[in-house]
Each structure stands twice: as C-alpha cells, then as structure tokens.
Amino acid sequence: MSKIEDVPKAQPVRSRNPERTRAEILSVAVTEFAEHGFHGARVERITKAAKCNARMIYHYFGGKEQLYLAVLDSVYAQIRNREAQLRFGTADPVLEARRLVEFTYDYFAQNGDFLKLIRNENLLNGKYIKRSQMIRDMSQPFITAIGELMERGHAAGSFSRKPDPVQLYVTVVALSAHHLNNAATLGTVVGQDLTDPAWQDARRDHTVDVVLSYLGAGTQV
Question: Are 209 and 105 in contact (CB under 8 A)?
Fold first, then answer.
C-alpha cells in the first residue's frame, strides 16, 4: 500500500482573469505588429507569447483586424494620457512650451514600438487608423490645449508669434521623430551616427531651441 505522501497531488487549476488576459494579449500584440506590420504579424506568435489559444483572440477582440485596431487605440491612448499630465495653464507659457517639446522628443526616443507602428500604418496609407473614432476624439483636446497655450503666451507677451496649434504640433513631431525614422539612411548621407546618445542629446537641445526661437519666446516688447 502506498504511503499517503506518495499519492500525486492534484495540480491547482489556474483561473484566468479576463482583464489580465486581454492586457497580456494586447501587450504582446503591440510588439508583434510593431516588428512585422499588419500583414506580417501572425496570430500564432501572439498566442504563443501570451500563453493563450487563438480562441482567446477572437473572444476578446473579434479577430486580427480588430486586435490591430485595439493596438493602435492602446498606443495612442498611452501618449495622449501622458500628454494630459503636462497640464498646460498652470505655469509660465515659455516653460510649458519647452515641456511640450521635451516631452514629445523624449517619448519618441523611449518608445520605439510606437514609432514602428506609426511607420507601418503609414505604409498602409492610414487604412486602419482612419477607422478609429477613439483616436480622433482623444487627440483633439491636446490640440485645443496647445492652441490655448499659444493664445495665453501671446497675450502675456511671452511669444511674439501665435501659430496654428496643428502646424506647431506637426513641427514638434517632425523635429522629434525624423532622425529616428530615417537614422540609417540620413546618418549615412551626413556621415554621422544619428543613434549615438551624445548626438541625440544635442538634437534634443537643438529641437527645443528651434521651437522656442520660432515662437519668439521672451522677445516680444
């Protein structure tokens, strides 16, 4: 007769937390779509990395397209939520303009998957992002906040210019991302390593200086 300690113990059944499972799938999918684009991404790799089965993808998202849309919504929600923490209207306009540029520059530098997803979506001519009302809705308040910052700074004499907020934001994005999106080719053309941390630090200072100089920060009489 077997001793009681020799009897195999029943293995605990892992209960799935729906919110955690969905979040795990989404996190893995961000990396998969960033690395391989929409067409190159594979549901099989996502399910393997997330330790779930394909049924979970369809259960929580509905399919590959819907999962990709959820990924786009997710990464844009992250940057919009971080931008909201800048809380324009609580400090000196010049300081807030500087924070806008520094935040945008640093966010792009530190979130490579975000830039990859945007590059891939542009190759699709924005086919999927156009379907996201959420991204449009959560982006408009930030543009409005930039416009209000420009109004306040101009009225206070802190800025000599009052640019259109969309034009200004597109300029900030371009200055913050172009060297990252084109580091391999542009670096070869100019003969410098655009991925070098020292070069990128200098680029950050240059970007801030360009935007504040354009605004005429502190120059209006």
Answer: no
d(CA 50, CA 174): 34
pLDDT digits (tens, 9 = 90+) for 27-77: 999 999 999 999 999 999 999 999 988 899 999 999 999 999 999 999 999
Q: Report, at the CATH architecture level, how domain 71-215 is classified.
A: Orthogonal Bundle (1.10)
Contacts of 22 (CB under 8 A, 6+ apart): 60
- Euclidean distance between CA atoms 115 and 181, whole angstroms: 8
Contact criterion met (CB below 8 Å) for 76 and 142? no
pTM value is: 0.87
Q: Domains of the chain: which residue ranges? A: 71-215
Q: Answer whether 107's CB lies under 8 Å from 82's CB.
A: yes
Locate 155 and state its tokens. 């009225």
